[in-house]
Amino acid sequence: MSFFTDLAHQYIDGEWKAGSGSWDIIDFNPYDGEKLASITVATADEVDQAYRAAERAQQEWAETNPYARRAVFERALRIIEDREEEITEAIIAELGGTRLKAAFEIHLTKEFLREAVHFALLPEGRVLPSPEDGKENRLYRVPVGVVGVISPFNFPLFLSVKTVAPALALGNAVVLKPHQNAPVIGGSLLARVFEDAGLPAGLLNVVITDIAEIGDAFIEHPVPSVISFTGSDRVGRHVATVCASHFKRSILEMGGNSALIVLDDADVDYAVDAAVFSRFVHQGQVCMAANRILVDRFVEGEFTEKFVAKVASLKVGDPADPTTHIGPLINSSQADAVAAVVDQTIAAGARALLHGSVDGNLVAPTILTDLPAGSPVLGQEIFGPVALLVPFDGEDEAVRLANDTPYGLSGAVHTRDVERGVRVAKRVRTGMIHVNDGTVHDEAIVPFGGEKSSGVGRLNGEATVDAFTTQKWISVQHGRSRFPF
After folding, report:
1. Is 287 one of the catalytic residues?
2. Residue of 46, 111, 287, 381 marked catalytic
3. Which of 244, 254, 389, 416 has the greatest number of CB atoms lying within 10 Å of its CB?
4. Catalytic residue among 253, 305, 381, 419
5. Distances in Å between the alpha carbon of 143 and those of 115, 201, 209, 225?
6. From CA 241, how far away is CA 292, in angstroms rounded?
7. Residues 279-300: what's their mean pLDDT?
8. Residue 243 is a catalytic residue
C-alpha cells in the first residue's frame, strides 16, 4: 500500500529519511500477513540527531505566541477529519483493528486534539506574598523543554496524540518512538499530519527503531527531561529505573487487570453488555480491559448464561468486514502467548465455558470459570480475548478479589443503587473506576492513570499541564534587602 511505503521513513528535523541501522522493521498486516512496508531502523546517532533538533527548535517555539501555537492543532484536527476514511483503512491494515475500533480510536484522537487547542492557553502564573518588605514573588509555568514519548501498538494514533499534542501545545518539543508493530499509525502518520498542519521543523521528530539497535539511548539521552511511556509493566519498570538514575521525570501508563463487579442488585442484561465490550473491544488488547468479571452468586447463573450467549455470537474474522467484532491479535507471538495461558489454566483445573479456536493470529473468545484459588492467571494481564468469570459472596469478598492483583488501572461496579456502587468503588485500589458502565474510558479533561504496577503519574487536563511544565520562581525586590554582612 502506497500509504505505508510513503510513510516508511524516519522524520528528523523536518526531513524524511531512511534509517542507517543494520536491519529493517517489516510492517505486516496481522490479518493476512501482507507486507505493508519495510523500514530501516534508526541508530543511536539518529536518536541523538532527533533530540538535538528538538532542543534547537524548542526555545523559539516556547516563545511563540500561544494563540499562534494553538492554530497548528486546529489545522491538525481538520486534517484528521478530512482523512478519516484513509486513516480508518490504515488502522485496519496495520493493527488488525475492526471498523468499530478504528472509529473509536479516531474519535478519541479528535477529542484530544480539540483539547490540545486549549492547552496552549492553560498555563497560568501566580504572584505570591513575601515576608520581606518590597518583595514580589512570581511563579511561572514554563515548558520542561524536550519530551521523549514511547507509544504502544494497541491504540497507537490516539495514545501518541494524547501525549505529543499537549506537550507541543505547552511549548515543548517532542521525540516520538512508536512501537515497531505500529510504526506508521503510531509514528510517521502523526509526523505527516503535523507537518501538513504547519508545525515548524524540529519540534516533532519520529524515530522508528528498537532497543535491540539503540539500547537505552532513547531514555538515557541528556536532552529530554521527561519520558512518557505507555506499555508493559516489565518495560515500564526499566524505563523508570533508567530515568531515575538520570534525574528525569517519568510518566508511566502500564498494564492492567481490571475487575468488572456485578453486585446482586445489578441490571444483569446491561451488565452483560458492559462486560462484553469491556473485555473484547479490540480483541482484549486494551490496558483498561476487564480481565476479570466478578459476579455475585445471587445473579451468577443468569449472568453467566447471558454472557456466554452474547460472547458466542461475536463474529471473528476479517477486520475490514463491518460485521466483524473480533479481528486478529497484533502478531503470532501474542496469539501463541494467549493460547498458552488458556491451555495452562485449563490444565490447572479451570473450566472453559467457551474455548475459542486459534487460526493464525485470529484467536476466538474464551471464557474460563471455576478457577482454582491462587491461580496465576487471576493476577496477571491477558492481552487477548479471554474472560475470567469469578463468583463472590457479598461486597467484602468482591472488593478483596478486585484488589488481589499487582495492578490498579481501571474497573467497574454494577448495581441499581448508585451510592452503593460508589462506596464499593472507593474501596477498590485503582486509579479509575466506573459505576454502571464499562471499564474502558478516557476523557480529555479527567485525570487518567493507575495505581500499583499500573503506572506513575496522571495525564489529561490539568494533570497534563503538571506533567509537561515545571514551576519557576522569580522574585523581584522593589525596595532594598538587608543582608547580615
Report:
1. yes
2. 287
3. 254
4. 253
5. 18, 18, 27, 10
6. 30
7. 97
8. no
